[in-house]
Amino acid sequence: MKLKKIVLTMLVGLALTSCKKDDPIIPNEEEVITTVIYTLTPEEGAEETVVLKYYTDGSNTTDGIYTQTGVVQKNATYIGALKVLNETTDPVDDVTLEIEEEAVDHQFFYIKPQGVNVNYLDKDANKHPIGLSTKFITDNDFVGGNLTIILRHEPNKFGENVSDGDIMNAGGGSDLEVVFNLNDED
Amino acid sequence: MMRIKNYTLFVILLIINIITTNAQKCNYSLSGVVIDSSNDKPIVGASIYLEGLNKGTISDFDGNFKIDSICEGNYHLDITHIGCENNQQFLEIHDNTKLRIVMNHFVQMLDGVHLLGHKAENTTQAAQNISSTNIQNNANENLSNLLGSLTGVSTLKNGSGIAKPVIHGMYGNRVTILNNGIVQNGQQWGNDHSPEIDPLIANNIKVIKGVGTLEYQGSTLGAVVLVTPKDISKDPHLHGATNYFFESNGLGNGLNLTLEKGAKSIAWKINGTLKKYGDRKTANYYLNNTGNNEANLAVQLRKQFSENWETKIYASTFNSELGVLRGSHISNLTDLTEALQKEVPFFTEDSFSYNIESPKQEVHHHLLKLLNTNKISDDEFYTFTYAGQLNIRKEFDIRRGGRSDIPALGLNQLTHFLEVKHQTKIGDDIEFKKGIQYTFTDNTNDSETGVLPLIPDYLSHQVGAFALLNKRINRWMYEAGARYNFTYQNVAAISKTTPRTIINFNNRFHNVNVSAGVRYRTLKQLHWAFNIGLASRNPAINELYSNGLHQGVSGIEEGNVNLKQENAIKTTLGLEGNIDQKWFFETLVYYQYIKDYIYLNPQDELRLTIRGAFPVFTYEQTNAQLFGLDVGTSYAFSDALKMGAKYSFLQGDNLSENIPLINMAANNALLTLDYHLPIENTFKNTSVGMEYHYVWKQNHLLTNQDYAPAPDAYQLLGFKFSTEKHFDKTKLYFYAKGNNLLNVAYRDYLNRLRYFANDTGRSITVGFRVSF
């Protein structure tokens, strides 16, 4: 009899106390990247600053939006500056700073359309490029096309040709991979 | 004062003891018969030995034995016979004593292919067993790998340390694992989650199918795995054993210690295991970051309050840290394509290390169980069980900004379980078992992960009731059972879209399962068995609400809130028997049809995110069928030399789309040869064996169903050796075994690591055990 009472009490106790799960704390998704901005400031052969931007709501459920202001010119030299942001937080989190801090574990790769050359201007502690600051050069063959920017996390920066921007032997994992269709009219 | 008093008392007792010892009678006899469990025939030439007295004898032509002139007292009796499991008994001799000793065969058959009539089983579909000897002699293996040695069971792996069992093509939510009678409430949903159970604490591992599974709460579409620790012996002396092993691949070390005492007041047993492994190695290169550490402890207590009331307490803790191959941690589809083309995975180094870094898993599982048995009569009793479980899982990914030390997935699951069971007999030959169960589950995510949880916070209440009947009439045995389960789930999920909000779901599910079986004995040595079962299973939390990027599988997994229950029908037809106790055979044919089978379906389009393109997997329903065949046979050339063979075939189809089902084990065959060395006078149970394993390529698969084609067929060669040396009170066991002796470079279809690296290469394990 005693046993039955104990069972009953425990059952009723459990059933009463918990029929609704408490609301979870929504995690602070500070690692998310929502926005990439590649700013091309003219140095030679062009007048207009070009801003390439890709942004999402950070949810992974909808595709992002690409925008371009200004037109990339033929036979021109630009200084390229990359900015990576997390806009889901308030204030907006500048992820670029985190990448700079862990420069030895990060590298940006630029997969270029015809007529474009991108050279690294910055270096980490091991004298390997990071890719936040670049020289962006176009020649006479340039007519537009896809520029892919990839951020690799923990790549093998000592790998063959990796310092020259060749992604083939880099390995690592992609933190970011965006494709800009340069001078796309649509 | 107390101390002096105690001391005096002790001396007095000692004196009394000496006096009584002197006055002991020494003219008692011990006699009996030794019987073979497989055919009830007497065993000739079994050795019966009384420890402490150095007295022994051998059973005669009729299996009889007799030892005379034994003094009153307590003794340990040791019975051994070639090819049989050692039998040890504790005896209190107050009078002339007669015994009936039943011996079980040792390596008569392969694991999982059972002996006819082996321990008069009350089921129509025989269970598959892994004996304690086999668990001990494979101390280096985890639970899933041990189960993988059974016919029809394979393992779904994520490297060598992380593995879960697949039984007749069913896994995860569809295979229930019971740890000491309690449904293991871990994270069954993930294919990269292994069961949090230490097999060394178990004495017996069993796979049951058919009607018997209805006794347990949880899904019943697949089989039920029972992991049972040995009951504390009735022996009032302190006994124990220690087991140490070393494995060459991964430079693994393991130590297990058991101590027990069957004291009349409170019987107790303690069992602890420590394991440490470093990087495993394939035939040609190291698998960096694949080490693991484990520390487990289990405590058992038993108290007999009266003749009819017994209470048992079981507490266990399982703690492990598991490394995941660094090169398998892939971020997006481009990276995956790149990794698939590499012969040797990224991040492979030339050196061995015990270090475990991210990506890794940290798992803790704690269990407390209380079992009360009330006996009404010899045929009727009640049991009352309470069990509490706490499962803590943390998964660490490679993260930016020093966040690799913060888990990307952190889950805490608490469950309470209550059960009342009643077993009785109706008339002379009907066994009737019924019971009710209640399970409460509370699952909570760590909020500091900084990542949207893959599985939402939820709680669930589950109430179930079952009834089982079995009846034996002459050559027939009938069995039937039914279960009803009600599940209530309250889910607090975080929205997939931004801004994030909380969405609540309330679900109620009714599940009904029924099953029946019949077994017919045509001859003493031949059994037919037929089983049929209907079962429904409600969608699990992950199938309904999974949401997000699963780093471990580099895909976006999305649940589907519109899923309905799935319904299945399964039939099996089995035949087992033997000819002259020399040639044993067993076959099992099964067919399963599942309406609205829930599975993770890769979608046609890729999702473009800021991190690149990702394949999207959505939980969907289809109609599916699975059918297969398991065959096992063994032939004894003599008492010493035995040969065995096993073969498993399985095919799964998605009927709605007319395509194969993925993740079905490839067909495989095993050949074994065992030889018992005839040196029983010096060493006991000495045997050497060879093993040849052939696994076909999984051809029942379309090329666009997977990232990489199914790996080629492979063949592995293994050996094993074991022996025992018995001293007066201690026993010494030694075993050695080798896996993948030819150091073959191969990949297995069910190992997710196959996308990136080869499977493990040659490995030699040596171990010894001392028991007293």
List the helices and strands and how they pair.
The complex is a heterodimer of chains A (about 190) and B (about 775).
Chain A lengths: L1 H16 L17 E10 L5 E6 L9 E5 L7 E10 L6 E2 H7 L4 E6 L4 E5 L12 E6 L6 E9 L19 E10 L4
Antiparallel strand pairs in A: 1-2, 1-4, 2-3, 4-5, 4-8, 6-9, 7-8, 9-10
Chain B lengths: L1 H21 L5 E9 L10 E4 L4 E4 L5 E7 L2 E8 L6 E7 L3 E7 L24 E3 L1 H5 L6 H5 L5 E5 L5 E5 L8 E4 L2 E2 L20 E5 L15 E5 L9 E10 L4 E10 L5 E11 L2 E2 L4 E2 L4 E15 L2 E15 L9 H8 L19 E18 L2 E17 L12 E18 L3 E16 L11 E17 L2 E19 L7 E22 L2 E12 L3 H5 L1 E4 L4 E4 L7 E14 L3 E27 L2 E25 L4 E14 L4 E2 L7 E9 L7 E12 L18 E13 L4 E9 L23 E9 L1
Provide a short characterization of the protein structure.
Chain A: This is Type 1 periplasmic binding fold superfamily protein. Chain A is mainly beta. Chain A has helices at 2-17, 95-101, and strands at residues 35-44, 50-55, 65-69, 77-86, 93-94, 106-111, 116-120, 133-138, 145-153, 173-182.
Which oligomerization state do the chains in this entry correspond to?
Answer: heterodimer
- Number of helical runs of chain B? 5
How many domains of chain A? The number is: 1
Largest interface, per-chain counts? A-B, 51 and 60 residues
Report the end-to-end length of chain B measured between terminal Cα atoms: 37 Å
How is this structure best described in words?
The complex is a heterodimer of chains A (186) and B (772). Chain A has helices at residues 2-17, 95-101; strands at 35-44, 50-55, 65-69, 77-86, 93-94, 106-111, 116-120, 133-138, 145-153, 173-182. Chain A is mainly beta. Chain A has one domain. In chain A, the strands form two sheets. In chain A, strands 1, 2, 3, 4, 5, 7 and 8 form a seven-stranded antiparallel beta sheet that branches. The radius of gyration of chain A is 24 Å and the shape is elongated. The mean pLDDT of chain A is 87. Chain B has two domains: 2-103, Immunoglobulins (Immunoglobulin-like, Sandwich), CATH 2.60.40.10; 128-771, Maltoporin, Chain A (Beta Barrel). Chain B has five helices and 41 strands. In chain B, the strands form six sheets. Chain B has a 22-stranded antiparallel barrel. Chain B has a five-stranded mixed beta sheet with strand order 8-13-14-11-12. In chain B, strands 3-2-5-6 form a four-stranded antiparallel beta sheet, with no helix packed on it. At the A-B interface, helix 1, helix 2 and strand 10 of A face helix 4, strand 24, strand 25, strand 26 and strand 27 of B. Chain A: It comes from Wenyingzhuangia marina.
